[in-house]
Amino acid sequence: MTVAARADSPLMEIDLDRLAGNWQTVRDRYTGAALGAVVKCNAYGLGLEPVVATLSHRGCRQYWTLGYDEACRVRALAPAAEVFVLTGLRGASARDCRTQRLIPVLNDLDEIAQARRAGALTVAIALDTGLGRLGLRPEAVARLAKQGLAPLRVRAWITQPASFSAPEGADGQNLHDRFLDLIAPLPRAARSLAISASVFTCPEHHLDMARVGSALYGVDTSPSLDLPLLPVASLRAPVLQVADLPAGAGIGYDRQFRCPGPMRVATLGIGYAHGLPYALMSRGAVYFGPYRAPVVGGVSMGLIGVDVTGLPVDLAIPGQWAEIFGEHQRLETLAALAGLPANAMLIATATGCGRRYHAARPDQPFASRLSESLP
Ligand SMILES: *Cc1c(COP(=O)(O)O)cnc(C)c1O
């Protein structure tokens, strides 16, 4: 079923062939044993079902999720895959995990003790090597080495780099060696250190398992490198009205912007309710084809104004669309102007806007099943 594009709400288009292409690019670069996909937070907002279907079809057999409910959804979508739950046993009992065949990532000694009391279970264990979030601190790792783990089976030791753009760590920190030293006294299991940027920038970090999110979704977490990733999501917003305003006219609440001269301004149907950052007040631009139209005035709940003075008249009229990000402007560029990491803007807009999926390749399992999902 194809739903006609509405002309009063923004629309995110998600290209599943490009998702598959990025999977292949990462696959080609990764030298370790198992490449896993991070699909936390509804696959970075893009939709768990189409993303898991596409990646499973391409051979992905490991998924990393945040939260028990999400893990159960992935379990149902990918019956043969290993499904890791980064929040461990906080939202599920060991028995729940056993029933659903989920692998909880245990993050502290209490959780490990709780899991051991519940009997045999396959788990992963996270170490905190400097991010200061989830995971066992080095003192706890030393205690763990003494106390043992039976009857748990450890599938993997994992740690999250403290920088997603430069995962090797600042000079002298050598995350790789510190991680291997920490786990040396512990039982042997797969070692997982690599995230998106590590796949491209630190071959040494590849080890046994990678947990890759951003790169699959076409988000470049180390933009200085110009990685061969394809943008997966693009976003557009409809023109609702065009007005010719005189010099001195205000645009937006409390006259957030004042026209320095006569201006033609298009009102677009997108705002912070759709995840567009408020920080784009009179900052950044959208595109009509190759033409740049700067944001003028504030970002309202469901509207923004853009300056279309001098643009070909038939490009910026009701019924036409403005590109927020996509072909002419990268998500990363606009996010940086708003002071946000690209993932933050991707998730907010993907969650706030209707999404439409494209898959041209006939072998894509998703092509004919779902074409649109509302926010
Ligand atoms: C989000 C996350 C990742 C993925 O990071 P990317 O830079 O998006 O590839 C990997 N591991 C853990 C534990 C995460 O929370």
Automatic annotation (TrEMBL):
Origin species: Castellaniella ginsengisoli
Start and end residues of each Alanine racemase C-terminal domain: 232-358
Gene: alr_1
Record's protein name: Alanine racemase
Organism classification: Bacteria, Pseudomonadati, Pseudomonadota, Betaproteobacteria, Burkholderiales
Cofactor(s) the protein requires to work: pyridoxal 5'-phosphate
Coiled coil stretches, renumbered: none
Gene3D superfamilies linked: Alanine racemase, Lyase, Ornithine Decarboxylase, Chain A, domain 1
Pfam families for this protein: Ala_racemase_C, Ala_racemase_N
Keywords for this protein: Isomerase, Pyridoxal phosphate
Keyword Isomerase part of the UniProt annotation: yes
Keyword field contains Isomerase: yes
